[in-house]
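Quick one:
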Amino acid sequence: MSADAPLPPPVAREVFADDAWPLAEAYARMLAGPAVVRGLLGPREVDRLWDRHLLNCAVVAEAIPRDVHVVDIGSGAGLPGVVLAIVRPDISVTLLEPLLRRVVFLEECVAELKLGNIEVLRARAEELAGERSFEVAVARAVAPLERLLTWSMPLLHQGGELLAMKGERAAAELAEAESQLRACGAERAELVAVGHGKVEPPATLVRVVAGRPPGRGRRDPRRRRKR
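Output:
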């Protein structure tokens, strides 16, 4: 089942350039149709599908380095992971989602759009800790930052980045997560705005750079084992 997506704003052709454009249109139709029918996207979100969802996710690509492996934690209907894979064919994206009905939809999207740079994985982030690692983790409307840190930091290489899409409370969440940032060994954290001139207001990201995991610091050579 499919439905007509709303007309995209002119800036969408700039953001989804060249080969990305037909893929973005096809994905928009899947979100407006099957995703709504299956309860993955609210019916009221269809009218603002481009501005609030597709464009808002696409501009996150500005903060992602080239040729990296990205994990989308709690991918849901594929926002932002599917969008990022469309606009950035140079990156590999793992859509991490524990719920079967969402996984089925994501697999259908990947097959329909023929996206060879996406892997769909049914699992929770906690289950992958120590098994897989990534250069970048992204998340949108999944959990408060404090909880998201416990899920994402074990999945990142040292120097890897969490890019958490946050709204008006981004600064407050960052302040509230201060102790958790220290506990998980984060190297630094900051607010980043992306999408200037493309989305209004610009999208706000909390960027957290992963440091050395707690308990894995170098041993002080001056310390000797007691006998």
